[in-house]
Amino acid sequence: MDSGVSIPFNTSAGDAYGVLWRMRELEGWDSPELDEGADAKSGADGLWDVENFYGGRTLSIGGVFTAPSYEEREAAGYRLAQAVPRDRLVAFTLNETTPKWVRARRSGRLKVRPVGELHGEYSISMLAPDPLKYGGAAVTASLSVATPGAGLAPPWTPPVLVPASSSGLDQAVMTNTGIYSSPPVITIHGPGASVSVYNYATSLLLAYDLTLGASDFLTVDVAAGVALLNGTAQRPPAPGSCVTSKFVMAPGDNLIRIFGTLTEVTPPSADISFYSAWT
């Protein structure tokens, strides 16, 4: 959810009120914090190493602004406060060669100081709970089970080789052009039963032991690690499935395929969407 107020930094036209915003400082965009979890060995040199994970990303943004009048200079400070609320996430986009964005909220004190009648200085601290930077355009695909009994029925015991599909309707190559794995959102539509999605790039299967009616849908939010049936009831993965939060899109090409059992003439289907990701 955004605030409804947009602050364009470093543009010649300025914002809708004629205020020119200049960003002179940006810290924290290069990398999020990597929380260290290694423990010291007792009575020996070295550490017991563990898998480390990124924490949140903290951004510090600072610069100056110029308004066409005293009144607009004063109002600009309040619009900046509105654009960066304390209680919800807003998008901060940096127009690199490949534009990227994070979602963050205000953290700490927002500083706005007048410097003369038409000029001011600002300093913002923002916290992005999700540390990843995402590409601007979503990568999407729509798949449907091609024929009754096509492929293998879950649960599977890894490692497993998935047979090739001849139709192509039940598989698609989805490319993550970033450098880090990205969590997709998958919406599985009925009618059908025992629908699963397989990623050849990661060798991970995501499966749900459900029978869906024609109006039923299961929304899988990998970032949140939850799957909601018809938007309300949580449903766990089936035996043999990976953990929901692990079904990510690896950097590069991901060959995705859908499996399932037809219960009516219309096959079960899935809509998949994600953004390329960077650290």
List the topology elements.
Elements: E1 20-27, E2 34-35, E3 39-40, E4 47-48, E5 53-54, E6 57-66, H1 70-83, E7 90-94, E8 100-106, E9 111-114, E10 119-128, E11 133-135, E12 139-144, E13 171-176, E14 185-189, E15 192-199, E16 204-207, E17 211-212, E18 217-221, E19 226-229, E20 233-234, E21 252-261, E22 269-274, E23 277-278
Antiparallel strand pairs: 1-6, 2-5, 3-4, 6-10, 7-8, 8-10, 8-11, 9-10, 11-23, 12-22, 13-21, 14-18, 14-22, 15-16, 15-17, 15-21, 18-19, 19-20
Q: Could you list some keywords that capture this structure?
A:
single chain, 279 residues, mainly beta, 8-stranded antiparallel sheet, 6-stranded antiparallel sheet, 1 helix, 23 strands
Low-confidence stretches: 158-167
Alpha-beta classification: mainly beta
User: Strand-residue fraction?
Assistant: 35-45%
- First CA to last CA: what distance? 22 Å
Counted beta strands: 23
User: Helicity, in percent?
Assistant: under 10%
Mean pLDDT: 91
The profile of the biggest β sheet is:
8 strands, antiparallel
Shape: globular
- Which sequence of SSEs, written as H and E, runs from N to C? EEEEEEHEEEEEEEEEEEEEEEEE
The radius of gyration computed from the alpha-carbon positions, rounded to a whole number of angstroms, is 24 Å
The number of distinct helices, counting runs of at least 4 residues, comes to 1
